[in-house]
Amino acid sequence: MSARGRCAKVLPSELNKVCPERGDDPATHPRKMSDFEVVPNLQQSSSSVSRSRRKAHFPSGSNEKENLISWIPENIRKKECTYFVESSQTSDSGRIVCECGYLREQHLDDAAKPPIFLGKEWDPSRHIQEMPTDAFGDIRFTGLGQKTGKYVRVSSDTPPRVIYHLMTQHWGLDAPNLLISVTGGAKNFVMKPRLKNIFRQGLVKVAQTTGAWIITGGSHAGVMKQVGEAVRDFILSCSHKEGDIVTIGIATWGTVYNRESLVCPMGGFPAEYVLDEENQGSLSCLDSNHSHFILVDDGTHGRYGVEIPLRTRLEKFISEQTKVKGGVAIKIPIVCVVLEGGPGTLDTIYNAITNGTPCVIVEGSGRVADVIAQVANLPVAKITIALIQKKLSVLFHDTYELFTESKLVEWTKKIQDIVRSRQLLTIFREGKYGQQDVDVAILQALFKASRNQDHFGRENWDHQLKLAVAWNRVDIARSEIFTDDHDWKPSDLHPVMAAALISNKPEFVKLFLEQGVRLKDFVTWDTLVYLYDNLAPSCLFHSKLQKVLLEEREHTAGSKMPRLQMHHVSQVLRELLGCSTQPLYPKPKHTERPRLSIPVPHIKLNVQGSSLRSLYKRSAGRVTFTMDPIRDLLIWAVVQNRRELAEIIWAQSQDCMAAALACSKILKELAKEEEDTDTTDDMLALAEEYEHKAIGVFTDCYRKDEERAQKLLTRVSEAWGKTTCLQLALEAKNMNFVSHGGVQAFLTKVWWGKLSVDNGLWRVITCMLFFPLLYTNLITFSREKRLQPMGCLARLRAFFTAPIVIFLMNILSYFTFLLLFAYVLMVDFQPMPSWREYLIYFWLFSLVCEETRQLLYDPDGLGVVKMASLYIKDFWNKLDICAILVFIAGLTCRLIPSTLYPGRIILSLAFIIFCLRLMHIFTVSKTLGPKIIIVKRMMKDVFFFLFLLAVWVVSFGVAKQAILIHNEERVEWLFRGVVYHSYLTIFGQIPSYIDGVNFNIDQCSPNGTDPYKPKCPETNADNKKPIFPEWLTVILLCLYLLFTNILLLNLLIAMFNYTFQQVQEHTDQIWKFQRHDLIEEYHGRPPAPPPLILLNHLQLVVWRGVLRRPASHHKLKEKLEKNEEAALLSWEMYLKENYLQHQQCQEKQNTEQMIRDIAQRVDVLAELLDLDRVKRTGVVEQRLGSLEDQVHQSAQALRWMMQALRGNGFSPGEDVPPVGSSKALDTKEIDLEGKPEESQPPYHVLARNLLYPGSHTLRFPVPDEKVPWEVDFPLYNPPAFSADHKDMAVQDPFSLSLESLLKINYNTMDGLIDRQSFHGLYAVQDGLPLNPMGRTGLRGRGRLHCFGPNHALHPVVTRWRRNLDGSIIRKSLKKMLEVLVAQYPLSDVWALPGGSLEPGETLPLKLKWILRREFWPQFQNLLKQGTEVHRGYLDDPRNTDNAWVETVAISVHFDTQNDVEMKRLNSFLQGCDPELCIRWQVLDKRIPLHTNHKELLHKVSTLLGAYY
Known about the structure:
alpha/beta, 10-stranded mixed β-sheet, 45% helix, elongated
């Protein structure tokens, strides 16, 4: 296979081109060693890519490609054979190949030269060298669409960190939340259609929901093809980009067919790859459905399995990385998923289990997967060589002849070790309860492995919860984490609660609230700062905050951006809520304030450089809680437009109506500034939803109690900036809320003041004109309706201070003012003002004083500037100012004799404006009020219409003027001709001279000298007849009238009609909304009408200016007492719960929802029926197995009876039937679904681990049944290993020569070495002692010092675990212990403080490291006083056939808290070696110690009756 062809060198300017076609034979272009440079392994290129993550693939620009092209050759290598040695084998075409598998032509030019120093034998370590890789870039599969992937050719010795850096930094992949390593059969195999679909859907679901990477072999066959097709089906069914799944294929470069198309030294962008299965032969094609390929090169051709070591190292490296997502920092978990498979798959499973990687075996996929699945539930003792042989004969029927006896032994041993680690093994069975989906099985496998992992305290529960949050799988969290096995404290969930909030996982927030998290305890001042620090950069609120911080930095002239504080947030919120609200978070008086944290141990959380664990670390005394934490979280969620989160939090709120209206206001303001239209629509929809929530709650409240509901409208909410619900609704322009019947009833009540709303308007007017009628029963008051009598003055005051009466009196006053003003203008306008005119001036002065009072009236303390801006925003105030200013201008001109007439003209214009002000009166009318809104909106339509009209008027006017009249120089007549006459033409006043028929020269000025006549058109000098083209002017006139009269005017009518209909649809809402402004104005207005209102103004000046009395409170704001407010809010919250329940009921009763529910139930029912069919089949199989078992037992009993009878002299007859078939005598099988009984293994287990610790030596596999020396094992041929301990003064020889071994005296004291066993005499064979516990698979003494027993001492130092008050902590009614453990240098595990005893020593050397020398004798005394819990053999991984560890374990227990010896021990521990780690640790079965040490702890806990 010609796979080493190189494309021609590509110049930098050609980087964007596809790699040239390879038309030349590779043999004609041999390569030289000098073509390559050897570069250090990992260098940071000067043009390295930016740290910013890029999704999917690079853009088409050249910068990214150049970065990749410069980085990869410097850091990624390939392997080349540099020495051609002819092999005995030939290629597929019969040609001579090298030992590496390549042809001579495919080698470097120097490789074929006679060797000088290379030697005659081909040695991969010497003859294969690394060189810069020549295959990388984008890969596109020809004929299979435009989808491109990434690929790279790497050396088999490439460090995993380099590949991980390539994937995350240059390929733009996000670090995974989970690593799924799929392994199994490399050849195509058949799966059941249902199982195939379940596997595909489950694998893709878990990858898509958790953000996982799937790693396979990358070829288009076997399990890799299954994974690729699963990804393909998902991509075809998902149109979202978020549906992309990272599928990484790690294949052997030398086995890839058509790999020459991938070779391009400057990168293929893209490289075209042809998937050709028909001609691939013994090689394999890459799978087109994988997104990334890592092609591992060891310099050979056609050898499979080269990628396995690098894949293992890469997976291990990735699993050691920490991924930060959503505020949770987790080590990336890894899981192995197995389908089918052969011998290589078994090795992969065994290595994964040995390394602690959980495995999911898919039963029913065939071969190895089925072998393990069928024996997984058996006790290990039942898994024998005969059983495995039987399974292999059935499942490997085609290749069973290849299994030798030694291979069967090896398989049995590996399967036993795999099944022994049940916590890492999960069998996915189709139809098994709780495992309908593969994704659930995968995640459950990870949780099961984490739950059974050794740990200190509660670390594994935290780890599981962090995994669930990172994967966003709340279903797994509910079923696997929040169970009865562990009690969660609410404070333990605070960090993950913050992480769930930041990463927008509402289901987890709801779950944590259900588990008891109280938002009042969770939300603190610094928590809020932390949450706002981690706003999404794309959020509009984030940019507004950054703008505020930038302005503060410019204001303070500092170079560093100020740190975000809550007063910055308050500043932005006040812009959104309106300045009528007070700041929600006041600026602190001190610049620095103590940071908060709540202690949450054993959880590391991190977001954007800020550590949540450091946030939750201080004493509770330094925690600063906010006024309303639910409000704070609600605002935080709403400003980010997070609908689900905000809904969950709002459901927890107490001041819910104000919260909903405030959210509506915030969202509407943000929507005005949001640039993205989709986000704007979402914000407006959410704002409307919150308005409906407020309406729903208020409706329920109003139905229950009208008075209390109206109190909710005017109650001053301290939490929302001392504003009211009504004010928030008005600020947000929530017309639906304001037009609610309850709100309108309240406004009507305010409008009538202390008068009863049942009074007719005619009665009020009558009493206003003749007030003595007040003392009759013509007018009723609200107090009198409540049977509370009123005095005469009280009735008079109540009547004339009612807003409706003030309004009517002001109308009467205003009409009087206009009548007097009109009379003066038309009848009594003298050079010297008359008394009537002076009265008008006085009247106007009172109006000016009232407008000034309105401008300066500031009950909320907003400031003059803000009040002025609010005053100017009102249209009617603008009209008032305009009228007053025009009147003052006219008055000024009127008082000057020379400008008397212009003054009268200006005053006439002022009168017009004053008359227009009358329209404000009509807003109180339900009929005329909306019409005023229509007029205002139509004025906007006219304004825009005039732009269109002006185009036609000016164009026609200029053309007409230029055609008819020559050089008109008078500006006023130019304006008349161009604009005025053209405008009048629209209404039918057509100029008489435009067509020449009605032309009269007397009506114009020939030379344009007459100022009162227009200039004459172009005429004949002789007869003075017009000479302009009449036909053209007539055509222009017709076209002009056509477009203006017919088109534009009808367009204006249509616009008016649309505006009218639009407003008319909402007439009621608009009138009710604008009615509030009028009511509020007259509610706060002085009762006397102008000009008598000056008396009220004088009273106000005396009251406020002279007497310094505070202003009276606004009645539309009511400050309640704390008790009353608390009761009111509790009542509101209760009704809010009723409203939410009612909404849920309505949703369930909704027709569409009911249809969806029924469809879902039908799907579930169909699934259950399908599963029931599968289970029924399984039950039949189980019954058949049970029947076979019973038949087997009966046959055995009959055989025993026959043997007994034969022994007593009864000879069998000729026709004795056979007892049981040969098959029935085979080893029985038990219920595969049953749980095997866990019991102590009868033989040593750790001493038979295949890989001997601290070496590369592999033990001979010894199954359980072959462990005893008494059992015949002819195949047993263990390797020998004895380490040379140069640092030890006393050790046995490491050679197994008989001469050196005969010098050793066994079963006695051999000098200082005690070779006596606690188990009595042991056998010695060929000068070597035999392990009394049986075979281990290794001869020699291994890493132990002596042949025979190696004695050790393990003190187990314990004390009771106590509370702060000194009481002993109990669990499951048993006392809990704490044990002293140590972690020695260069060790990753914890152990008991003890170890091997040196010859002649009484204390282990490791124990001496821990204790000071002066404490050694006292500790020996403690050991003498202690209780021996174990004396004998210790199952140790270092044990061999000829050397083993025997130990004495002594329990040293301190029963009292004030034990003097314990205090002395603690004091001496503090002064030990600083490289040692020592701690008192809670004793339970999950404590992370050596397995044999945990057995000793179990014995101690049993001795003391403690919890374990």
